[in-house]
Amino acid sequence: MAELVALDDLTETPHAEVFDGDPRTVRLKLAAGEGVATHRHPGTTVLFHVVSGALTLTLDDETYDLDAGDIVRFDGEREVSPEAVDDSVAVVVFVPNSDDD
User: Fold this and answer.
1) Can you give the residue ranges of the Cupin type-2 domain (predicted)?
2) Any domain includes 75
3) pTM score, whole prediction
């Protein structure tokens, strides 16, 4: 079975759950100048895909300037804080780490 979701239909919150279950998938919508406070996602690998706009993504003490089409993968143990340079939409996937590591 396939699940199909249109990101434009997810309007209820800035952090809209795209699908139920794992891997957790979130549509993040931020207005220019809006950001998310520094936080972590322990136990996951994070895939951060900028769909539209431009964001500055801070990982620990490193800063990345991201544009539409850019994808970043990082360990959820890192401190992360995105901030929108322009009105932006990103899809964030939280892949649970394997217990086999």
Assistant:
1) 28-95
2) yes
3) 0.90
